[in-house]
């Protein structure tokens, strides 16, 4: 049986590794593009780096389907342990890869192969974690414990941002390109041992007797279709907003608004610290107000204020940029902090693992991983610096009907297994 301490450990730590790697690649995308592809200007290198970022995530969909069925058939805990181990090796190996100057076109090929393997394993990790914590938690702690799963994303990103900050503060760009870029990836070695030790806290429990055993993927998806539409629409908004704010914004400030890399990364680090607080607060508020009410408030406020906030970024002031990012983190955190509870609550226990995996992974693959590339290309082509605000607004409006339709009753709330 899991104790509350175990669930806190699983919720906070299990995803930290994934999002550290995810964040460090995003923050170093320009460097990665420069050293793994043929020489070009800084924008071309950034686009190439984000292209591999996006392509690597296409494997997440296959991994999500695999681990979704595995979670419903074999047990949430067993599937979660497998996904944690599978994604560890590629991150470490990226730090040892030869560059384009050494092996030519083989360099981007090797990078892409590792990203595909890693993407497959990552397809099940976070939604499986959320499903596990949701079902193992007692009702009176569920909202807060589920928020811990999302807090772990911010913590992983924060660790990545801190490491990137140190990299840019202590090394010049030439040194980073020559060898220092490897250091953040090699830091994954001790993180891997930490994750392996944490796996001991994951105890499996029986899969519901009405599991999706014997059903085809098409039949299972048909059963989950109605709740899937609501879950995917809300997840799409949270994914786009989160990726833009925490992954892509430092590149935007640096390459399009000409902020020094150190200042762009510093505002991002401070924003991630605030995001941890806002996500925790959203879990507490969801327990008090209900996640249904909180997601509606967060969506409506984002729709109303995203343009004024993005316009404020254009003032080219460090203090304005920081304050604007903190306000956006408040809006994003009010929804993303309760995502696992929202997703888990939409699906019956018999198909919850598959439902959560698909609802989480589809927007992540199709929208999240491609957003940095799309936004960079569109601004480079059109010169419209406010385009990201249009992008976020569109997905906010798309999610609003689903959020407004959420009811207080959700299918098959478990009583908790503590």
From TrEMBL:
Q: Which residues form the Major facilitator superfamily (MFS) profile domain?
A: 7-414
Which superkingdom?
Bacteria
Entry's localization field: Cell membrane
Q: Which SUPFAM superfamilies match?
A: MFS general substrate transporter (SSF103473)
Pfam families hit by this protein:
MFS_1
The way it spans or sits in the membrane comes to: Multi-pass membrane protein
Transport as a keyword of this entry, yes or no, is yes
State which residue ranges cross the membrane: 12-37, 43-67, 103-123, 144-171, 183-202, 229-251, 263-282, 294-311, 323-344, 356-379, 385-408
- Which terms in the Gene Ontology molecular function aspect does this entry carry? symporter activity
Keyword list, A-Z? Cell membrane, Membrane, Symport, Transmembrane, Transmembrane helix, Transport
**One cellular-component annotation, GO:** plasma membrane
Location (main, coarse)? membrane
Residue runs in coiled coils: none
State the family named in the UniProt similarity comment for this chain. Answer: Belongs to the major facilitator superfamily. Metabolite:H+ Symporter (MHS) family (TC 2.A.1.6) family.
The protein here is known as: Putative Major facilitator family transporter
Q: Which organism is it from?
A: Candidatus Glomeribacter gigasporarum BEG34
